[in-house]
């Protein structure tokens, strides 16, 4: 009896061991395909924007200089205030120039009297010549004296006019309407017109700048300009006309300026020192918020890019090979596609190559997939979906996978 019971227990034990042994050899169930949010790639046209750093300069700038020599007696404007064209800003001592004018006027009066006498004499001799009271030589000499006196009067009148001009220059006026800056020479100093120093101008007294509109000067490298021209010839980009190229200035505190500027000058030659081409834009400045000499960053809308793809930044990854995107193929498997992208537009990367129309680019859940695996797709709805898929997906990305960041 005991022998029979032992045999039965042995048979049961062997059956259980066989059952457990067979379970260890069965393959584990396949994990479910991860769910990802995808967007369908569609070509579009986007603005062609480039960022630059420029420096502001006044629309008009004029130096107020002394045009005659003398002692500066007073300043007749408030520094930093707006002045009108022709407004007197400085006064130079006029005593010497008034004396010169008075002397020239006296000389003119004297020579005018001589001219009147010579003309009367010549007229009288012309009347006496027919009756033989005077000779022809006498008449000719009288005519010559009259002409000489007339010429002397003309010279005196020119001297008087010159003296008046120099006297007027003792009142130094503004050449343009604008903001007058700080005076460069104080009262009591001797200023000059620069006539004794070859090649130099008069003494600089102040500067007047017109700032209701400003220029912003910047440069673009010759290589970038050639690239744009080549892309234009291929039809990849459409460059805007110069007067339709808009410029958005960013203030030094990072906020955008509320007035758009317009490109108004492009140089026709490359600077031999820097290898760059100079450009200039005109910026409205009605509130005088911008100041000449200020450095600003600016975004220039040069036209538009044709047939490019806008892809959210989180969908573009980078490794040692370059930039790439993960795409779900028609068979539901994940495929890597290397892409060309160097610029961004708003919150998206601009992809210029590597994608095809209709590609389903993985935007949400990209950290939980790798090339060759199956993925379950849903239309991407934005950052909320990205967050939810990231939380429900694997805790870490596959080995060697690295999320992209904007460079």
UniProtKB/TrEMBL annotation:
Question: What range(s) does the Multidrug resistance protein MdtA-like barrel-sandwich hybrid domain occupy?
Answer: 62-197
Entry-linked Gene3D superfamilies: 2.40.30.170, 2.40.420.20, 2.40.50.100, Helix hairpin bin
Low complexity bias: where? 388-407
Instruction: Write out the GO cellular component annotations.
Output: cell envelope; plasma membrane
Which molecular-function annotation in GO is an example for this chain? transmembrane transporter activity
Protein name in the entry: Efflux RND transporter periplasmic adaptor subunit
Chain ranges of the Multidrug resistance protein MdtA-like beta-barrel domain: 214-303
Disordered: annotated segments: 375-407
Q: What start and end residues bound the annotated signal peptide?
A: none
Family (UniProt): Belongs to the membrane fusion protein (MFP) (TC 8.A.1) family.
């Amino acid at each position: 009896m005991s022998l029979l019971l032992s045999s039965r227990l042995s048979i049961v034990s062997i059956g259980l061991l066989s059952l457990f042994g067979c379970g260890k050899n069965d393959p584990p169930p396949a994990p479910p395909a991860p769910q990802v949010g995808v967007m369908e790639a569609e070509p579009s046209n986007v603005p062609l924007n480039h960022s630059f750093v420029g420096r502001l300069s006044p629309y008009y700038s004029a130096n107020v200089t002394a045009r005659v020599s003398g002692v500066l007696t007073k300043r007749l404007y408030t520094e930093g205030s707006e002045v009108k064209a022709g407004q007197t800003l400085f006064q130079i001592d006029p005593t010497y120039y008034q004396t010169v004018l008075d002397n020239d006027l006296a000389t003119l009066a004297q020579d005018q009297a001589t001219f009147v006498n010579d003309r009367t004499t010549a007229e009288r001799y012309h009347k006496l010549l027919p009756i033989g009271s005077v000779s022809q030589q006498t008449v000719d000499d009288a005519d010559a004296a009259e002409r000489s006196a007339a010429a002397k009067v003309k010279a005196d009148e020119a001297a008087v006019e010159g003296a008046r001009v120099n006297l007027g220059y003792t009142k130094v006026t503004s050449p343009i309407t604008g903001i007058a800056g700080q005076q460069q020479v104080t009262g009591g100093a001797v200023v000059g017109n620069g006539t004794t120093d070859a090649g130099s101008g008069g003494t600089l007294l102040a500067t007047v700048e017109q700032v209701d509109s400003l220029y912003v000067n910047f440069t673009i490298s010759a290589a970038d300009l050639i690239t744009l021209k080549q892309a234009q010839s291929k039809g990849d980009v459409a460059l805007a006309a110069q007067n339709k190229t808009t410029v958005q200035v960013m203030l030094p505190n990072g906020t955008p300026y509320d007035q758009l500027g317009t490109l108004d000058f492009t140089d026709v030659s490359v600077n031999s020192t820097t290898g760059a081409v100079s450009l200039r834009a005109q910026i409205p400045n009605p509130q005088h918020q911008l100041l000449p000499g200020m450095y600003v960053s600016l975004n220039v809308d040069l036209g538009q890019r044709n047939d490019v793809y806008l892809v959210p930044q989180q969908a573009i990854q980078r490794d040692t090979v370059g930039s790439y995107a993960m795409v779900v193929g028609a068979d539901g498997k994940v495929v890597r596609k290397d892409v060309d992208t160097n610029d961004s537009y708003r919150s998206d990367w601009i992809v210029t190559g590597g994608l095809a129309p209709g590609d389903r680019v993985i935007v949400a859940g990209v950290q939980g997939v790798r090339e060759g695996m199956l993925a379950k797709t849903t239309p991407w709805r934005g950052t909320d979906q990205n967050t939810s898929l990231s939380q429900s997906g694997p805790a870490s990305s596959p080995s060697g996978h690295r999320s992209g960041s904007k460079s």
